[in-house]
Amino acid sequence: MTPRPRATARPAVAATIAGRLLRHTAPGPQDTTGPGRDTERYIVDWAGPVDADLPDERAVQAACGLMQVHGRATGGPLPLAVDYASVVAGVLAAQGATALRIARARGLDLREVRTSVAQGALLTVGQYLAAETARDNSGSPEPGAPHAPVAAFDVPQAGGLATLETADDARVEVETLDPLAWREFWARLGVAPALAGRGWLPFQQRFATAVCPLPEELRQAARRRTPAELRAAAHHAGVSLLAVGFDPAPAVRPAPWFLTPGPASVPRARACPDTGVPGPRPAVPVSGAVLPLTGLRVVESTRRVQGPLAGHVLRMLGAEVVRIEPPGGDPMRWLPPLAGDCSARFSALNAGKPVVEADLTTAQGRDTVRALAAEADVFLHNWAPGKAAGLGLDASDLLPGRPALVYAWASGFGDAFGDRPPLGTDYLAQVHSGLAAAVRPADQPPAPSLMTLTDVLGGLVCAQGVLAALAAREVTGRGSRVDSSLVSAAALVPRPAHRVRWTALDRPLRTADGHLCLGPEARACPEAVLRLLDGAGPTAAEDLVARFARRTTEEWTARLAEAGLTATPVLTDLTALARDPAFRAAVAPPDPSTGHARPYAPWEFA
């Protein structure tokens, strides 16, 4: 049988997002995707370097692991009911186009950049991929040896969501990073400290595992209380709580980022007297190629995902990224699973960044930050609201001494809640933005995905804001302040006015040996699928699902192809990405330097 041609339809959502962001980039490139233009050009398609026929968003989510990670908490692979991978690809396309503008202004002969929805999807699962392919210190296999099975701790099974139900069937999401506040919250609901303590570890680990197997007794305690009682308990304990609504529309629609020009530039030599700042540890170069940001320096003081990912993106574009960490290093470095002597998840976002340790609670530590910022092109942080001003390290403190500096703050909520916002974490941002309702179909209760959707998208949007500011600096010579947030990133995700309704064909179908995601033609024409089933005549959804389970994934893929229909096997083991020949050009296998698999940089420049 002749192989089906690869999908050629342009990813419309990705193109729309890229165009929107490029219009918001000032002064920056316009949408230059047309042929024959003697200027910068970006191209975004579905599969990119992945050697597979991926005709739409669902196929990309199935093949690249998004369905596997999103569905962990609810028992099996499940699509995100929004075009999340396409939005990510749109941001990547805008980043590539803006980086081209910066490169050409700096004398580099680069004219075109390519990216894809598949590369965007792989970037979003990078931390999960790192964790599941990490080699432990003890008994590490040699490079090229078969991958050892990953412990159940590292590949969690269905364990439920963190969303709590109340006595009147409302739903709430709570958040705290303080174990004492967690214990106090549950104590006010009549839960014994020991029982509350059993829920703390899975609650905190949900950021890394995408599951939250809370003890059932905690869920029952919440169900005995009204929303008002839960809000009161949260208030007294210092825990953030938001009600989970059914409306997918964003509560607010902020701009992706806000750019405030800094003071007029003053001519100034880059070199400065010896400050006594300890030299950073050497970084691992991204590649031998000259990249758009080669020669630029970024200093970041960031934690968790959003801020480090923004720095990671800038590093992949060629910048040197220096991390400021507390004495002894960021505690996240030692969270399991380890790849060598470092957390695999931490390494996925921070490998190759030299480190300077500084205690920001001391004058000497703050002076270290000022000295580093005075020699940087970008200073990036995701500190809590008010912390920068309290440390004397706000934009108004640093820009006068370095007028060309781009100062970037990646926050949780921006100014959406005034001066007393909830904790600025991923899941509360999903709730406030309506994304928690949008990512699930109408027959499921609304709840945030435990995949860190807004952390990743927020980091990407922050990086694009930085690129916009650097592009503006090439024209004006002035630095600027860039403010972005998780909520401003979430607002980019298009969603319908009402939650979507799915049929059985919209969900992954279980086969005899896995799961299969039907392509757009099959989902749009269920009669064509029914004709392929054993037996004739109409069939109930339950019968359809049962009949698919009688044949293997390969058998069904072949039968559908003979009927002119596409289908994509659903990836249910992320470690397979590092072994699959189809992903050889998109995913780097574990190597001695990282100890885990990782996606390659998601752009190709020419």
UniProtKB/TrEMBL annotation:
<protein>
    <submittedName>
        <fullName>CoA transferase</fullName>
    </submittedName>
</protein>
<dbReference type="Pfam" id="PF02515">
    <property type="entry name" value="CoA_transf_3"/>
</dbReference>
<dbReference type="InterPro" id="IPR050509">
    <property type="entry name" value="CoA-transferase_III"/>
</dbReference>
<dbReference type="InterPro" id="IPR023606">
    <property type="entry name" value="CoA-Trfase_III_dom_1_sf"/>
</dbReference>
<dbReference type="InterPro" id="IPR003673">
    <property type="entry name" value="CoA-Trfase_fam_III"/>
</dbReference>
<keyword id="KW-0808">Transferase</keyword>
<feature type="region of interest" description="Disordered">
    <location>
        <begin position="585"/>
        <end position="606"/>
    </location>
</feature>
<dbReference type="InterPro" id="IPR044855">
    <property type="entry name" value="CoA-Trfase_III_dom3_sf"/>
</dbReference>
<dbReference type="GO" id="GO:0016740">
    <property type="term" value="F:transferase activity"/>
</dbReference>
